[in-house]
């Protein structure tokens, strides 16, 4: 990419990256723990939704862009809400997963390989199971079912697995680190270091991977 192209062609993606980086380094400071920190956290994925909205062209591909933008907006609301109330934040994320599943089911791979099917099934089953084992909480396992459905559907979609499918897996890993704080497994210092980078990197990979496909810049399978 030519120098300055990210700023000139994708300013909202750049703004999202800046907000996410600022949140990561300020979250443990008084500024990051207050209103400014919430704004930076919410803006990180919220600006990704704006990036998607502006980059996806009109026409038959527009509905998929709308679904992706809605899923990202719900996740952005969850990012903020979870700092105030864990259950409310989880509800926003569950809603985001429902929308994302709808998007992926519209775009399933027509001829998935046996390994793709096997890994998709593993994500569907193992995600809620591991969520429960890590947290010891039934409500987390229920949320994990939504999370697993999203990751499994992403992996089974025709979008590139090395971008969208991997991004969904990073989302799962990030949530597992959150759940580990609730149960008997002590993974310190991994949750503090990796929850936000894994989650945000996953969202960026999902958003940019799907946008490139919808714009015809990346072939679908």
What can be said about this structure in brief?
The chain has 221 residues and is mainly α. The chain is 77% helix and 0% strand.
Outline the structure in words:
- Helices cover 77% and strands 0% of the residues.
- The chain has helices at residues 5-9, 11-26, 35-55, 62-84, 86-105, 114-135, 138-156, 161-180, 190-214.
- It contains 9 helices and no strands.
- The mean pLDDT is 91.
- The longest helix has 25 residues, at 190-214.
- The two termini are 24 Å apart.
- The chain is mainly α.
- The protein has one domain (5-214).
Count of DSSP H/I helices: 9
Rg for CA atoms: 17 Å
Strand content: under 5%
The major sheet is characterized as: none
How many domain modules? 1
Distance, first to last CA: 24 Å
Number of strands: 0
Query: Strand pairing plus helix content: what structural class?
Result: mainly alpha
Please bin the fraction of helical residues: over 70%
Element-by-element helix/strand order: HHHHHHHHH
The general outline is: globular
Contiguous low-pLDDT stretches (5 residues minimum) are none
Mean pLDDT score? 91
Please give a handful of descriptors for the protein shown:
single chain; 0% strand; mainly alpha; 221 residues
Which secondary structure elements does this structure contain, and how are they paired or packed?
Blueprint: H1 5-9, H2 11-26, H3 35-55, H4 62-84, H5 86-105, H6 114-135, H7 138-156, H8 161-180, H9 190-214
């Amino acid at each position: 990419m030519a120098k300055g192209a990210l700023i000139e062609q994708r300013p909202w993606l750049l703004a999202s990256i800046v907000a996410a980086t600022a949140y990561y380094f300020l979250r443990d400071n008084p500024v990051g723990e207050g209103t400014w920190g919430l704004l930076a956290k919410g803006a990180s994925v919220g600006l990704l939704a704006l990036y998607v909205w502006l980059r996806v062209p009109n026409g038959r591909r527009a509905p998929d862009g709308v679904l992706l933008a809605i899923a990202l907006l719900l996740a952005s609301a969850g990012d903020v809400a979870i700092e105030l109330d864990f259950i409310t934040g989880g509800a926003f994320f569950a809603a985001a997963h429902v929308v994302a599943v709808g998007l992926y089911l519209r775009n399933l791979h027509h001829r998935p390989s046996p390994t793709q099917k096997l890994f998709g099934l593993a994500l569907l089953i193992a995600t809620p199971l591991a969520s429960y084992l890590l947290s010891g909480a039934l409500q987390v396992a229920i949320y994990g079912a939504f999370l697993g459905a999203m990751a499994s559907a992403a992996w089974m979609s025709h979008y590139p697995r090395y971008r969208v499918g991997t991004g969904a897996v990073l989302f799962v890993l990030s949530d597992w680190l959150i759940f580990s704080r609730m149960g008997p497994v002590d993974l310190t210092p991994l949750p503090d270091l990796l929850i936000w980078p894994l989650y945000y990197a996953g969202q960026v990979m999902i958003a940019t991977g799907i946008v490139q496909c919808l714009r015809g810049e990346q072939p679908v399978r």
